[in-house]
Design brief:
By secondary structure, the chain is α/β, with parallel strands linked by helices. The protein has helices at 20-31, 51-54, 79-86, 92-95, 102-114, 182-186, 201-211, 249-265, 271-277, 281-286, 290-308, 313-325, 383-389, 429-432, 438-453, and strands at 10-16, 39-43, 122-126, 129-135, 138-143, 148-156, 170-171, 177-178, 194-197, 218-222, 328-340, 346-352, 359-363, 365-368, 409-411, 417-423. The chain is built from 15 helices and 16 strands. The strands form two sheets. Strands 1, 2, 3, 4, 5, 6, 15 and 16 form an eight-stranded mixed beta sheet that branches. Strands 7, 8, 9, 10, 11, 12, 13 and 14 form an eight-stranded mixed beta sheet that branches.
């Protein structure tokens, strides 16, 4: 690896983002000894592999998928399990179905990157990309350090950013702790009363971070009050339910409910039905008419998420224990206002679901766990804001992520696919919906690397 002083003047491929998505692209580009591509991986983090998902230092933050499904190498499904076994995590056969700490996966990605045959052709820059300009025959990246780096191709692997709480609900300078900030969450006083806004995976992380030492009351507020469901033991591979090709969302959900009811009646966990849907996730989205996709986003998305994106059984058991003891309360309610009161306490105003009267209560801390922001950050001083202002990117379907061609190239304001600018991961949500799991990122990384590796005159025909 190099520091900023060893920056090359030009590379073939610049990958913006050093989390899982960026590392998976780099793995593909560096795995073939026959390729001579020079690659730069650019991220402010100290080392690649962590990103928002895997940089956590909390041992209680577990993968939401069994280790046997987390290989970074598409053609070697047992790679991650063997890595864990070689480092003393346990027996490989048992590890395949285990939910291991997420920090182990960040280290795995970094070690796998370092093991690639052409790792010496990689330049890792601890920096931030502030802008990308088109220059003759190249893309010029402007880095926060002042470096200018030219690249034939650029891959946007910027990952997720937390969704901010609406400014309209803030009454005064209300301090808010971000659920993704492990240090800030861990620093909450153990006797503090805490309101967590949002009941998804970010909330689970925050609660697990607090659970062992915290003694104050935890109150979770979200519109539906639904918690992620736990995984069941792995089941046999089977065919997905029939009836999911119907053009209407209502008919598809009817078929899905029938399939889960039949599975339960046969003594199978309902989770197995959803596991059999995993390979079809993107096809289920892209085959829905636009109006039905909108209906899904308005009415069904939260119900889908809690069943499809599940958590480790031990995490679910911790949540259930906290609820049973009265330390954790989950409320279906819409957040209306946050106001800072004398003494530093925070007054929270909510409108409970199915209730006429609003409700107010006070806490010592508020944690924002509303999940990822699915829109383009419009600020002109950030990378995506600058690209949007220049017409190089536009919002994707339903305002989700970016407009993207089928092969991962971004589509500009004129509707043209950019021959040199690719995107991977969460920014393809509008196009694919299911686009953040490792098996989805692996496939996207392979497709992007294949397009880049073709001779320049053939890479983007048609």
């Amino acid at each position: 690896m190099s520091d900023d002083r060893d920056t090359p003047a030009a590379v073939d491929v610049a990958i913006v983002g050093g989390g899982a998505a960026g590392v998976l692209v780099a793995l593909q580009l560096l795995a073939d000894p026959a390729l001579s591509l020079r690659v730069a991986l650019i991220d402010p983090a100290a080392e690649p592999g962590g990103g928002a998902a895997y940089a956590t230092a909390q041992a209680t933050h577990l993968l939401n998928v069994p280790a046997g499904r987390m290989s970074a190498l598409q053609d070697d499904p047992g790679h991650f399990v063997r890595y864990l076994a070689a480092r003393g995590y346990g027996d490989a056969e048992l590890l395949a179905t285990a939910f291991v700490p997420r920090q182990a996966y960040g280290r795995y990605l970094l070690d796998t990157l370092r093991a690639q045959p052409r790792f010496g052709a990689l330049r890792v820059l601890r920096d931030r990309v502030d802008g990308i300009d088109v220059v003759p025959g190249s893309q010029r990246l402007r880095l926060a350090s002042g470096i200018r780096l030219d690249a034939r191709y650029v891959v946007l692997a910027v990952g997720n950013r937390p969704r901010p709480l609406p400014a309209s609900i803030m009454q005064g300078a209300v301090p808010v702790v971000e659920a993704w900030d492990d240090g800030a969450v861990a620093g909450i006083p153990e006797d503090a009363d805490v309101c967590i806004v949002g009941s998804g995976l970010s909330m689970v992380d925050a609660v697990l971070c607090l659970a062992e030492r915290h003694r104050g009351r935890l109150r979770v507020v979200s519109r539906h009050g639904l918690l992620p469901r736990p995984h069941a033991a792995a089941g046999p591979v089977g065919a997905p339910p029939t009836g999911l090709d119907a053009p209407s969302l209502r008919a598809r959900f009817r078929a899905l409910r029938a399939a889960t009811q039949a599975a339960t009646a046969a003594g199978e966990p309902w989770q197995w039905v959803f596991d059999r849907l995993r390979p079809r996730g993107q096809q289920l989205w892209t085959s829905l008419p636009h109006a039905e996709q909108r209906r899904f986003l308005r009415h069904a998305v939260r119900y889908w998420d809690v069943h499809r994106h599940r958590i480790a059984p031990v995490a679910a058991a911790t949540l259930a224990s906290l609820q049973a003891s009265g330390r954790l309360r989950v409320q279906a309610a819409r957040l209306q206002a946050l106001a800072l009161r004398d003494g530093g306490r925070i007054q929270v105003a909510v409108q409970p679901r199915h209730a006429d009267a609003p409700e107010q209560f006070t806490v010592d801390r508020v944690i924002n766990a509303t999940g990822i922001d699915t829109t383009i950050d419009p600020r002109p001083d950030c990378l995506l804001g600058q690209l949007q202002a220049n017409g190089r990117i536009v919002a994707g379907p339903h305002g989700l992520g970016l407009a993207v061609a089928a092969d991962g190239r971004v589509v500009d304001a004129a509707g043209r696919a950019d021959s040199a600018l690719f995107v991977i991961g969460a920014l393809r949500m509008g196009q694919l919906w299911e686009t953040t799991a490792i098996h989805e990122l692996r496939e996207q990384a392979r497709e992007i690397a294949a397009a880049i590796a073709l001779p320049r005159g053939e890479a983007h025909r048609g």
